[in-house]
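pls ignore typos typing on phone
alanine + seq
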Amino acid sequence: MPTGHELRQSFLEYFHQHGHTIVPSSSLIPQADPTLLFTNAGMVQFKGVFLGEEQREYARAASSQKCLRAGGKHNDLENVGYTGRHHTFFEMLGNFSFGDYFKEDAIRFGWEYLTAVLQLPKDRLWATVYQEDDEAYGLWEKIGVPSSRIMRCGEKDNFWQMAETGPCGPCSEIHYDQGAGVAGDAVPNGTGDRVMEIWNLVFMQYHRNEHGTLHPLPKPSIDTGMGLERLAAVVQGKTTNYDSDLFRPIIRAIEELAHRPYGTSEDEDRAMRVIADHLRAISFMIADGILPSNEGRGYVLRRILRRAGRYGRLLGLEGPFLYKLTDVVIAELKAAYPELERTKSTILHVTNAEEERFLDTLDKGLRLLDEIVADAKRAKRTSISGKALFKLYDTYGFPLDLAADSARDQGLTLDEAGFQAALQEQRERARKSAGFEATKTKPIYTEVSRLTSPTVFLGYEEFTTQATVLAIITQERMAKDVVEGDEVEVVLDRTPFYAEGGGQAGDQGVLTGPEGTIEIKQTIKPVPEVFVHQGIVTRGRVRQGDLVQASLNLSLRLAAARNHTGTHLLHAALREVLGPHVKQYGSLVAPSRLRFDFAHFSPVRPIQLEEVEGLVNERIRLNDRIGTKVMGITEAVQEGALAFFGDKYGDKVRVVEIDAFSKELCGGTHCRHTGEIGLFKLVAETGVAAGVRRIEAQTGEGAYELLKHREAEIQALADLFKTNPPDVLAKARKLVASLKEKDQELEKLKARLASGGAGKEAGEIRKVSGISVYNHQMDGMEMNDLRALADIVRDREKSCIVVLGSVKDDKASLLVAVTKDLSGRFPANELIKPLAAIIGGTGGGRPEMAQAGGKLTHEMDRALAQAFSEVERKANG
Ligand code: ALA
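k done
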């Protein structure tokens, strides 16, 4: 009995023998396709080929494609677990013809593969055809299917389209009758699992545009899809996909973890099926770079993960458990999908973190539910409002059945109708925001692309070239000529301008024609292979057909190249320092800066950052040559070239290689040698989402400017500290230390003062002729300390004369401070003079504050005592 893996192999081999090129699965994230949230069929990566926008080297292809149907037009999420044949994630086997063979061969290949290669019993197979498709009906009859097992069906079942817009056509399905032992109708498209669709052959004939109108495709084509999981079940004689060898190991792992066998209770079996299905989806989604979030793809992942976590509770599992099962999924599928192995630790971490978060919200939900129940009881209601329930469900991901249980325990019912209404409303909102909008390409670009040939891009080698103006767009219309002041978009037959893409900014520059000049501010590629130069006419007139000199702004371009090569070095260095789980999530390469987002679980530690920066600069000094080559995508990935999921790759890809250090698929422009980068400087490391870090950096002139700026700041500091840059740190350290010391002294002083009262330690306040005179000797103080102390006393007493003395080493210091109200009658600079004489010195200052120093330290007592007499003398004098 063939295993699932053998079936995948046999399918591809069969079609290979019949002239089909085997194409690897594309990512679950559709490449540059805003109409679609997830890759939901094998044909998605060939959409452009069907529409005639893209050329391939082959007219026949076959693939085993990773698909996800958990949002948008094709959504099986709610069926999962309830049937034995629906999945969120599944593998679609498909064969494709791009204007090559059509209905007859498609039917013949399908029939032959199932009945001759796999030897499925012919009398169990059904064919359905689109109601008006007599041709397909006739072809099935001709091949030997009796008319009793050919069924005509309507648009719902037999007209297929990938999304609201895009390629589509009538289809013909092959169904398999599992026999009376399986519940369900004995005909296709009925209820139950008994007769199950296994293969869909789509006769691609139309393109549905954003208005819903059908336009014939350039060439009638074939797109087929067969779920590998269903095929495995049928071939292995199992009645549900979960009994096939593709799922058994996963179910077994769940059985072991939950300590209960599969196949005993319907509720528990369903829970195990949901968990098994969802685990596969979770692993593949994370492997393709999706992270849980509150919108778009991330939201779908979050819902799937939480749904799986919730079903775990039904099996009595406590705490996060999903992460314990991702390894089984990876082990089962990594041979066919090596990305699972490469992202293993990311899958585990993200799954665990998200489930923990979910359990936490579940806890909060339980508490909120308690409140809701209490409110309802207080208000003497008998049911819980649908709105409150929905909030629980939506905000906290709180399972409705759990809420129902609690409510029942409290003798309350649930307002399910209200809940459903709120849910419906939200689904509407989600549907509107989830993607499925009309494509964003402006119609004018599509029109231009039809009228012009693909732009030849010369910019890897050349920076200026002669080119012919093929089309001019101004104000969203085609124009024959434009004049000074017009904002224009220009399409040339060839160009050195790089069009924005792969994270790199588009080029700027000038187009100079015989009669005028256009300054180009941006270059984009709104449709594949059509470069649109956007700018403004700054002189004269430019006409369609003009021969122009197209020259890009070289300094901007070279700056961007330095940042782009720098980004590749950074990526490789991060993988070396942090580990191979580092995976690019996005990047921005502009002339002035670079930004790189990547998967990693904690902030990158300073020592690691230093290592990364060091490694990049080392590669710069080694002056590695940057090599590029064009090769098959499979070969490139096999060679270990890193691919970024968000970019669009054809089957021929460009690989940018920096010695043995870095190898990435990339269409961007780079330096020739790493030495051109000059210098690489990290600017910041921050977090952008759970598990995603961002590094910003500068290269070349930007890095140099950054360092110059820092140097200037250090010079300014040195000036401030009255020292030289090399000494500024020592000086600053000293200052900080002495500040700290001062703070401590000040604290001590405050404490001493606060202890108040009499005694020499605390100082003495005496009324002299009605004036408060504070007199205190505190040895070991500097003049600054005395000043600070005097301020404290003045603040406290409001109106007073403060006389302080201190002996330190061989020096006696005196300070007199007088509050403003008294400084007219008792100027400090006069009071201090006789006191200064006693300690053998002179004194001076202002009426509010004066100081003196002398050598006669043993006279300090006398000098302080004299202060009282001086005040008295002045008061009475
Ligand atoms: N694209 C077709 C489907 O998904 C084959 O059913």
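Residues 41, 43, 160, 200, 202, 223-225 surround alanine (CB under 6 Å). The first strand starts at residue 21 and ends at 22. more later
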